[in-house]
Fold this protein.
Amino acid sequence: MPSPVRMASAAECVRFEHESFGALHQMLSGVGPDERDAAWREIEEALGQFEGPDGFVGPCEMLVVSGTRP
């Protein structure tokens, strides 16, 4: 099911990810502070492609499933 992420800007999305996504912090834990800052800048730059007149709209999909026990 399409579930786009809508925010004011790519910068706001990166701020949200920086504050919320532990996995990103783990991936960057092996590099120094300067490299980590550069990586966050690169992430923001890449997410900029999803900015438009309506702000940031990042693609996202959710799987909706159900199950039963036999």
User: Anything to note?
Assistant: Strands lie at 5-7, 51-52, 55-58. The longest strand covers residues 55-58. DSSP finds three helices and three strands in the chain. The CA atoms of residues 7 and 13 lie 6 Å apart.
